[in-house]
Amino acid sequence: MSDPALETKATGNDVAMAFDEFMTAFEAFKAENENRLQEMEQRMSVDVLTSDKLERINRALDANKRRVDELSVKAARPPMENEGAARSGSSASQLQHKSAFHRYVRNGETGALRDLEGKALSVGSDPDGGYLVPDETEATVNRALKDISPIRAIAGIRQVSASVYKRPFAISGPDTGWVGETAARTQTNAPTLAELSFPTMELYAMPAATASLLDDAAVNIDEWLAEEVRIAFAEQEGTAFVTGDGVNKPKGFLDYTKVNNATWTWGNVGTVSTGTAGAFPASNPSDVLIDLIYSVRSGYRGNAHFVMNRSTQAEIRKMKDADGTYLWQPASRPGEPSTLMGFPVVESEDMPDIAADSHSVAFGDFRRGYLIVDRVGIRVLRDPYSSKPYVLFYTTKRVGGGIQDFEALKLLKFGL
């Protein structure tokens, strides 16, 4: 469930106040971490109270960051149209579809919606599979997913109308070279192509409504449906894009074969090791992060992100460089990500905690490296029978995903 305090559109003052609290928490974190470092230098150990206090501040810092992000999204989100208002430039057929869809959701009337989708030869016109939501509602759901799904926010996205998206990819480019104006041209080798296939799988949510809610003309049906399904969709997607096994779900980037980056080949994900099982090295721990960054070719680093979960980020947040500057830095403005060594940090709770041989940090250009495939159309099937007196709305969308460029992503392995 979403925070009731965030249900209404956030104001600029709300965002500014939350951001000030976040920065105050970060200053408190730095001060307490200095105490921890001094204790380690003087006594070669850290007082339990100091460690506990530092962890409490760390958790508060994470909570403040999430609140700033949520308020920033709320403040930036455009309001949906009222039910009776016509979107500027909407066609007559779009308005008819929207009106028919609302009658279906509120009252179960299917005639007009079936006729409209039948005329359009829609794949969603089968009553057993549900009916397509209006374009505006679909756009709102997809926009909300991008706002709250961490990997979707940074990955490449392609919309398709078929159930499978296939594309060729050049593993190695053609041979090229310099020649004189009249010199003979030697024949070049053809590029090596691989076919990548991304099947779309069905993702569903089943929000429930009371009869009084459906009868209330003041309730915006589009907004209600989008709000109900967006979190359920985002949570399922987020897990699949990271750890999915590709069986009835997208294939996550952690599910591919992993090899040491020194012996990397196409089709595998390269890894850089910390050299210590389940931990960063005791001396110069930031060196492995530098190695991870430079394991990615320069062409991919310009749009690269770190991806890790909250506990890993909390560990890295304590690190400094040789000049005493913290490697992790908070965002300079609300709505922007924190950075690690100058690169944005994306927090995904589906990434594993630091453990022996875990791959707890990912780095690279996810827009080029990981592809999300959305099949056009979100469908809704109204079910007033299964859970009386509530009306269930079986809402489905088809989505796939997988790595499209194996050079673009690297992982940090906490082991040898």
Please describe what this structure looks like.
This protein has 416 residues and is an alpha+beta fold. The chain folds into three domains: 11-76; 96-132, no CATH class; 133-171 and 191-210 and 221-309 and 348-416. 37% of the residues lie in helices and 21% in strands. It has eleven helices and 17 strands. The protein has helices at residues 12-43, 48-76, 92-107, 111-119, 135-148, 211-215, 221-243, 286-294, 298-301, 310-316, 366-369, and strands at 131-132, 156-160, 164-172, 192-199, 201-205, 208-209, 258-260, 269-273, 305-308, 328-329, 339-340, 343-347, 359-364, 370-375, 379-383, 391-403, 409-413. The strands form three sheets. An eight-stranded mixed beta sheet has the order 7-8-17-13-9-12-11-10. Strands 1, 2, 5, 6, 14, 15 and 16 form a seven-stranded mixed beta sheet that branches. A two-stranded antiparallel ribbon has the order 3-4.
The gist of it:
By secondary structure, the chain is an alpha+beta fold.
